[in-house]
Amino acid sequence: MSSTGAHLLSLKVMRVSRPSVASAWEPFYSSSPSFSAHSTTSIVSLQGKTALIGHPKTLRDLSHVTEMLMLPSSFGAIQLGETFTSCVSVNNEANVPVEAVTLTVEVQTASTKTVLAEFGGEGQQLGPGESLERVVSHEIKELGQHALACTVSYRIPSSTRASTSTDGIDSDMLVFRKFYKFAVTNPLSVKTKVHVPRGPSALLSREEREKVFLEIHIQNLTQDAMWLDRMHLECAEGWQYQDANMMDSGDDLGNESMFSGSMALMQPQDMRQYIYILSPSQRAVFPVPHQPGTIVPLGRLDISWRSSFGEPGRLLTSVRAL
After folding, report:
1. Are residues 196 and 135 in the same domain?
2. Residue 251's Cα: distance from chain center in Å?
3. pTM score, whole prediction
4. Tens digit of pLDDT for each residue in 126-170?
5. Same-domain check for residues 232 and 109
6. Of 134, 153, 185, which residue sits at a domain end?
7. 261 and 161 in one domain?
8. Cα dihedral angle (279, 285, 289, 294), rounded to 10 degrees?
9. How far apart, in whole angstroms, are the C-alpha atoms of residue 274 and residue 8?
10. Mean pLDDT of successive 10-residue segments in the chain (322 residues)?
11. How far is CA 288 from CA 1, 114, 161, 212, 291, in A?
12. 295 lies in the same domain as 239
């Protein structure tokens, strides 16, 4: 039985995410008598951790960053490849116990419906003021509008329960649903270009003329910086690749990516360019040329990153073709 009236149970949903650094603006008075007196005494007076009385530090406080952390007020921005984690809580707001509490949580998109959790059941009872909480997670793999659908069912107390309906339907079972909508955006722009050797000298060499140069452009489309953890090309069957983005580290550690270390940090709208050199894993003595219009799969990209607060993200692109 579904009811549109007031229910004995309430449902609360909160996204589990890392906080952000709160900011607060403070004015800086360069003509302050206190500042002038302090600055004439010592040229390094502004380098300490303690601000002048009533006046902030120049470099630290003009950034508006405080020592406080701020929790998100809404679901916030959710990117493709991230793991959406939410805490779902069913609370008994009445002064009587309820029985057979069941909660079903699912994520719905335009094309799919995925059940994340289903807990409770006939033996689940909630007394006055008690709650039933679970943490659910889901890896986001589609763009567009998503909805977190929560269905709660419960049975009213036996003391106020009416007689069972003659048609076999439990008239004392109440059900209500709530939907929490959020949009998923693309964190990265991935563009590819395919180049093949066309020079006369390259065409004379069987090894060189069979090479394929895969050029990849990756751009950070988010409003925050991200740390690019891993960039890997998974070759299609029949291909092998050479990573042209590696350079000699100058020590015993061997080669390292030119985008490692501080270069792995991508600010908003930053772009990275990668080059991979592909060649057939087995070279035929008489290679068969591809017919015009034939789609030759080369491979797909496996990209992993972390947000400014360490939240992981992963994007597996579609297969790139020749």
Report:
1. no
2. 35
3. 0.67
4. 888 888 899 999 999 888 899 999 999 998 876 665 555 545 555
5. no
6. 185
7. no
8. -50
9. 58
10. 65 80 58 52 50 49 62 73 89 87 91 90 86 90 90 81 53 86 90 86 76 92 88 90 79 68 86 91 70 82 86 87 81
11. 67, 45, 78, 16, 9
12. yes
Domain with 198, as residue range(s), is 188-321
Q: Please count the CA atoms within 13 angstroms of the CA of 110 that sit on its side-chain side.
A: 6
Bridge pairing between strands 188-195 and 271-280: unpaired
Instruction: Give pairs for 1-7: CB < 8 Å, separation 24+.
Output: 1/169, 1/170, 1/171, 1/172, 1/173, 1/174, 1/175, 2/174, 2/175, 2/176, 3/174, 3/175, 3/176, 7/152, 7/174, 7/176
Residue 245, CA atoms < 13 Å, CB-side half-sphere:
21
Q: Do 102 and 223 have their domain in common? A: no
CATH code for the domain of 296:
2.60.40.1230
Looking at the structure of the chain, the number of domains it has is 2
